[in-house]
Amino acid sequence: MNSLIERQALIDQEVVDALIIATPETWHAADMQVLRGREGEQDKLMITISSPEGHLDSVGPTDEILEALRKLLVHFREHEKTWVEVIYKALMKENGDWTYSIQFKY
Fold this sequence. Notes:
Blueprint: H1 4-22, E1 29-39, E2 42-50, H2 63-78, E3 85-92, E4 98-105
Antiparallel strand pairs: 1-2, 1-3, 3-4
Helix pairs in contact: 1-2
């Protein structure tokens, strides 16, 4: 499992799992926008988690989310790829399972 896409899929699943765990049980959907910038030699992430359902609970990035995003940064760096924004959207289906989509901007 050395390819960019195969490894990235595992990391993306880790990010989404951490996002779902971080949100209140009353949420059936969650959006997370991650903007990547640079501060000197270091990556700086600006993370916003929101409810497309309109819930007003304040949800910030957990250690698990930050660790998974760090893995994503390292993975892309190893493959000489960069992104400036990624949006994760998680949605609970009627049967209680979760589905998700991801959009990268390079």
